[in-house]
Automatic annotation (TrEMBL):
<keyword id="KW-0472">Membrane</keyword>
<feature type="transmembrane region" description="Helical">
    <location>
        <begin position="101"/>
        <end position="119"/>
    </location>
</feature>
<feature type="transmembrane region" description="Helical">
    <location>
        <begin position="270"/>
        <end position="291"/>
    </location>
</feature>
<dbReference type="InterPro" id="IPR017452">
    <property type="entry name" value="GPCR_Rhodpsn_7TM"/>
</dbReference>
<keyword id="KW-0716">Sensory transduction</keyword>
<protein>
    <recommendedName>
        <fullName>G-protein coupled receptors family 1 profile domain-containing protein</fullName>
    </recommendedName>
</protein>
<dbReference type="Pfam" id="PF13853">
    <property type="entry name" value="7tm_4"/>
</dbReference>
<dbReference type="InterPro" id="IPR000725">
    <property type="entry name" value="Olfact_rcpt"/>
</dbReference>
<dbReference type="GO" id="GO:0004984">
    <property type="term" value="F:olfactory receptor activity"/>
</dbReference>
<keyword id="KW-1133">Transmembrane helix</keyword>
<keyword id="KW-0807">Transducer</keyword>
<feature type="domain" description="G-protein coupled receptors family 1 profile">
    <location>
        <begin position="40"/>
        <end position="291"/>
    </location>
</feature>
<dbReference type="InterPro" id="IPR000276">
    <property type="entry name" value="GPCR_Rhodpsn"/>
</dbReference>
<keyword id="KW-0297">G-protein coupled receptor</keyword>
<keyword id="KW-0552">Olfaction</keyword>
<dbReference type="GO" id="GO:0071396">
    <property type="term" value="P:cellular response to lipid"/>
</dbReference>
<feature type="transmembrane region" description="Helical">
    <location>
        <begin position="26"/>
        <end position="48"/>
    </location>
</feature>
Amino acid sequence: MEAPLNASLIFLLGGIPELGHDQTVLAFPLCLLYIIALFGNCTILAIIKKEQSLHQPMYLLLAMLAFTDFGVSLTTLPTVLGIFCFNYNQIPFDTCFTQMYFLHALAAMESGVLVAMAIDRLIAIWNPLRYASILTRSVIGKIGLGILLRSIFVVLPVPLLTKRFPFCKSHVLSHSYCLHQDIIRLACADIKVNSIYGLVAVLMTKGVDSMFIIVSYMMILKAVLSITANEARLKAFNTCVCHLCAVFLFYIPLIGLSVVHRFGKKASHLIPILMADIYLLVPPVINPVIYSVKTKLIRQKIVKVFRFSMTKRSPGIGVSAVTM
């Protein structure tokens, strides 16, 4: 029997099965999460771009992290809100593969940025006097370009390999967006090559990156423990708190999702759904909040921008405040 033409194929995205046909119960909290994610990351990007004092390695890398988080939110937004706001769960074949490519490429980019941020903290603690001369803007630019190119070319074979499959089984996906692990299980062909390359791609990006992060933090811990003054030790480690939160938010759901997809065949269907949602929806929301609260310069600039905005809207209030 001839396989159906993939060009006209429509995939059906999954929401939360327990909610039945009406998925709109989660519309408000999801809309709120997307507003926080998009606004928070845009605010960080705008402030870092505007303030010359923030054109330092740490903040330029933070801008890269905010950019990838913004990209992830923008990529998942149409399908997630389509399901949970309008009960619309259809996605054309080509659109699905485009979304899949961007999601996996952006995830690889975020992983690379987290490694660069770990190295940044390592240099800042191990060799603070040479920090600015080692991590110049040119070096940061090359690191960003390397992360981008690696993500593009490592992930590119994934949709190319997957598009060649006929999809004659069920067209119902498990998640609210298109993921490689979810799509290949619907293929009517041998998916061994895809599975192997998918694993290789993960190891080449997140696997290698996680090892670099672990080694970096072992060296950071060694350097921090060698500091005799407790206050200086606490201050040094405090500069890593935001980055550690971002690492845990990214890697823990990712590892859990990969393990469940590959080995958890008998696990509840809700587990991979919830892990995928945490993996793609939570970091873009939490990262800008953590960095805004914990990073003094970012917090001060945000407060300054909002005060200036309020003063422009209510000039009378601004004048009275000055004259008090």
